[in-house]
């Protein structure tokens, strides 16, 4: 699994153009999972009820994760809308994103090739206007630490841009850290070495209670 950071939409975007009297309106938004993508698609249908088609595509996770893709031509000829839109999303390198293009027919047929260019081109142009932020893939680490070693741990968290997810103060400090997944081995090794073996951070096993 690729643990490298990837881009996600920072803010929603609406962009439109007219092609041979048909109006194509692209809506883009951050959707971290498939349900969020479906909810966004439905929200655009409600916002543009008079549109003849609401074609869509989504990448509801990392850009490289092909398990969470979806697209629909929504009544346009097969392969002329959803697939070229998905190709644009995948080519952008942006993850956790859904695009919906609402079309208002202007009376002039575009043909299959024209539709592919219209839907793909509308989304391509919209993507150039999209603001993005970096999404880091974080991992959870359990830690038990004496108060005397807290300064060392806080220093390492700052160095690796990690943070406390949950912390409890008792006879010792216990809690869960969030550290970028790709640097976990190095972070744990540094913590162990610099504390002279006193502090061990262990990855939280998924699925455990």
UniProtKB/TrEMBL annotation:
Domain UPF0029: 143-198
InterPro entries (UniProt xref): EFG_III/V (IPR035647), Impact (IPR023582), Impact_N (IPR001498), Impact_N_sf (IPR036956), Impact_YigZ-like (IPR015796), Ribosomal_Su5_D2-typ_SF (IPR020568), UPF0029_Impact_C (IPR015269), UPF0029_Impact_CS (IPR020569)
Signal sequence residues: none
Domain of life: Bacteria
Alphabetical list of Pfam families matching this protein: DUF1949, Impact_N
Domain Impact N-terminal: 20-127
PROSITE patterns (UniProt xref): UPF0029
Family stated for the protein in its record: Belongs to the IMPACT family.
NCBIfam families: IMPACT_YIGZ
Protein name: YigZ family protein
Organism: Oceanisphaera marina
Higher taxonomy: Bacteria, Pseudomonadati, Pseudomonadota, Gammaproteobacteria, Aeromonadales
């Amino acid at each position: 699994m690729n643990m490298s950071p990837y881009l996600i939409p920072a803010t929603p975007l609406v962009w439109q153009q007219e092609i041979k009297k048909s109006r194509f309106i692209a809506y883009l938004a951050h959707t971290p999972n498939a349900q969020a993508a479906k909810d966004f698609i439905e929200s655009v249908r409600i916002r543009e009820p008079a549109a003849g088609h609401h074609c869509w595509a989504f990448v509801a996770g990392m850009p490289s994760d092909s398990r969470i893709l979806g697209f629909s031509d929504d009544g346009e000829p097969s392969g002329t809308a959803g697939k070229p839109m998905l190709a644009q999303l995948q080519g952008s390198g942006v993850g956790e994103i859904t695009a919906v293009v609402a079309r208002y027919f202007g009376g002039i047929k575009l043909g299959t090739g024209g539709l592919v260019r219209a839907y793909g081109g509308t989304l391509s142009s919209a993507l150039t206007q999209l603001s993005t932020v970096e999404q880091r893939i974080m991992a959870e680490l359990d830690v038990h630490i004496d108060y005397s070693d807290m300064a060392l741990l806080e220093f390492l968290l700052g160095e690796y841009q990690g943070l406390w997810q949950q912390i409890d103060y008792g006879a010792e400090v216990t809690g869960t850290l969030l550290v970028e997944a790709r640097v976990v081995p190095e972070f744990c090794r540094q913590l162990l070495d610099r504390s002279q073996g006193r502090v061990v951070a262990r990855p939280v096993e998924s699925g455990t209670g």
